Amino acid sequence: MAKKNKEKEFVNRKARFEYEFLESVEAGIKLTGTEIKSIRAGHVNLRDGYCVFERGEMLLRSLYIGEYKEGNQFNHEERRPRKLLLKKQELRKWEKKVKEKGFTIVPYRLYINERGLAKVEVVLVQGKKVYDKRDTIRQRENKRQMERVKKQYL
Fold it and tell me: In which family does this protein belong, per the annotation (predicted)?
């Protein structure tokens, strides 16, 4: 009997609304033992997370990973900076883009892959203007209305 792989996935849905996505990359995260256990338990919030460059490394800041209940004195800080594991070439490319044009890098998706490793999808984004956000809301409402009409006549 084949074992089904149930992937835990956490998505920052608000990022789609707040930012315009330009480019994305999958990166590993350097975690401690209690952090990975807490992620598997589902105690994660990506909403306030953002990435910064320090000494040639990309750090993920303000990502909330809740305390592991059985962690006792070896537990981790909930919002500590975590190093992202990327190739140097990708790091340099993204650092250049962030410095030149004023883009931002935010975590969009965090998941455990089939090998049991925590991966995060980070996205190069540009902030949306207020009228762009209104347009997004308008499109979403139109889509919902079309689905209702479709459902009513089918």
Answer: Belongs to the SmpB family.
Q: What angle do CA 107, 109, 6 make, to 5 degrees?
A: 155
pLDDT band at 2 (very low <50, low <70, confident <90, very high): very low
CB of 59 within 8 A of CB of 84?
Answer: yes
Rounded Cα–Cα distance for residues 128 and 20 (Å): 6
Strand (E) or helix (H) holding 13: helix 13-18
State how far the Cα of 140 lies from the Cα of 9, in Å rounded to an integer. Answer: 23
**The one-letter amino acid at 146:** M
**Which domains occur in the chain, in start order?**
9-128 (2.40.280.10)
Concatenated DSSP letters for 84-103? EE--HHHHHHHHHHHHHH--
Q: Which of 86, 37, 77, 79 is nearest to 58 (CA)?
A: 86
Question: What is the distance in angstroms between the CA of the first residue and the CA of the last residue of the chain?
Answer: 40
